[in-house]
């Protein structure tokens, strides 16, 4: 069987198995199945003892190199299964953290910053004895991966960005809403609203294998602890809004590759804009080439007709391009 076909099949199996996810999901995803065993690293932040979840997947035939995967804001490590499989098949060790505030990691009331999250990821690498890694970041994870590369260039083999948000500075055109206002919005989340958002923003054509993403992203709203989850989501929204990285692309000292679904039109805070303003922004077909030009040793890999999550929407194309550009 062709390896990429087998990888796509692996993705489908993971997706279908997740249909059995319960109707109510805990805010630390305790009852959500991940593609590989999850471990926890104790961390301290803002005087609180917390824990950071991660997967550490080692290949059967190691090539001596490591890749770290950073998830997007609305996801956790659970959606990286096919990417992990493709990389380990090629001999890479793969580290997949759930960032603090996301996935199976602690939902702490702290000041969230990309600097802080980058430092925690360096701590994870140091704890695991990993001196250098490729860093692949999707969506919000792309902003974090960029900050990580700016702070710790000596740790980064290559920066790999999959439809990162933050290619433009949202606070220059999106009206400000503080964490308290955003919290009220987050509290309104339901499985139905999550699916509607995913359908309109992530996938131009809905497929049954995407439903597991909605089950995880939406069913957490049924938890008795959902207000805490919503408050943390509001705090991390504020982090994205207030901490742009787009002005620093020219300062990157590591090679970078942008893997971009060119039909993406993601804007953080899009609902706060008029249709006329929405049309002016979030145009990845324009933003991505401009960003690639700003980055020294930057390279753009476009995926035409693809939106925000190429590794799920167009896995064969994405994984082929990823492996060719490692």
Automatic annotation (TrEMBL):
Family annotation (InterPro entries): AB_hydrolase_1 (IPR000073), AB_hydrolase_fold (IPR029058), AB_hydrolase_sf (IPR050266), Epox_hydrolase-like (IPR000639)
Biological source species: Mucilaginibacter limnophilus
Domain AB hydrolase-1 per the UniProt entry, residue ranges: 66-170
Leader sequence residues: 1-20
One Pfam family, short name: Abhydrolase_1
Keywords annotated in UniProt: Hydrolase, Signal
UniProt protein name: Alpha/beta hydrolase
Gene Ontology CC entries for this record: membrane
Gene Ontology process terms (BP): acylglycerol catabolic process
Transmembrane regions listed in the UniProt entry: none
Gene Ontology MF, one: monoacylglycerol lipase activity
């Amino acid at each position: 069987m062709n390896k990429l076909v087998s990888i796509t099949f692996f993705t489908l199996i993971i997706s279908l198995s997740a249909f059995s996810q319960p109707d109510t999901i805990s805010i630390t995803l305790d009852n959500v199945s991940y593609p590989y065993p999850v471990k926890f690293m104790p961390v301290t932040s803002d005087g609180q003892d917390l824990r950071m979840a991660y997967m550490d997947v080692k290949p059967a035939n190691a090539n001596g190199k490591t890749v770290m995967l950073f998830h997007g804001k609305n996801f956790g490590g659970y959606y990286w299964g096919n990417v992990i499989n493709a990389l380990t098949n090629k001999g890479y060790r793969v580290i997949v953290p759930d960032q603090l505030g996301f996935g199976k990691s602690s939902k702490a009331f702290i000041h969230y910053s990309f600097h802080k999250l980058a430092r925690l990821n360096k701590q994870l690498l140091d704890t695991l004895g990993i001196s250098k890694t490729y860093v692949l970041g999707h969506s919000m994870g792309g902003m974090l991966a960029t900050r990580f590369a700016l702070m710790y260039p000596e740790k980064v083999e290559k920066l790999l960005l999959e439809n990162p948000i933050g290619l433009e500075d949202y606070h220059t055109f999106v009206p400000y809403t503080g964490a308290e206002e955003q919290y009220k919005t987050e509290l309104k989340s339901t499985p139905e609203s999550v699916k509607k958002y995913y359908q309109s923003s992530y996938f131009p054509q809905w497929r049954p294998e995407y439903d597991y993403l909605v089950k995880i992203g939406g069913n957490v709203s049924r938890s008795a602890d959902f207000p805490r989850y919503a408050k943390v989501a509001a705090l991390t929204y504020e982090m994205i809004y207030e901490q742009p990285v787009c002005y620093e692309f020219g300062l990157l000292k590591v090679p970078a590759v942008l893997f971009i679904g060119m039909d993406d039109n993601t804007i953080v805070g899009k609902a706060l804009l008029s249709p006329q303003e929405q049309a002016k922004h979030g145009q990845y077909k324009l933003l991505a080439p401009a960003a690639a030009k700003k980055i020294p040793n930057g390279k753009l890999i476009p995926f035409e007709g693809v939106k925000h999550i190429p590794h799920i929407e167009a896995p064969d194309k994405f994984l082929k391009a990823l492996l060719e550009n490692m």
